[in-house]
Amino acid sequence: MPIIAIEGPPIAAPAVRRQLVEELTAAAAKAYALPPEKIIVLIRENSPEQVAVGGVLIADRK
Known about the structure:
- The chain is built from one helix and four strands.
- The protein has a two-stranded parallel ribbon with strand order 1-2. Strands 3-4 form a two-stranded antiparallel ribbon.
- Strand 1, helix 1 and strand 2 form a beta-alpha-beta unit.
């Protein structure tokens, strides 16, 4: 089973999250010629306080 892992900022709207996993699943199912039930999508949401770029927390960047 293919696994798609996405990391990024939180997605506030559940409808947007649903659309994201539906579209990713459809694309992977097509690419792998598998039924959508075989595709796993993992979403890891990271708040700006948990991610740094260039040694600076994103929450501290303005």
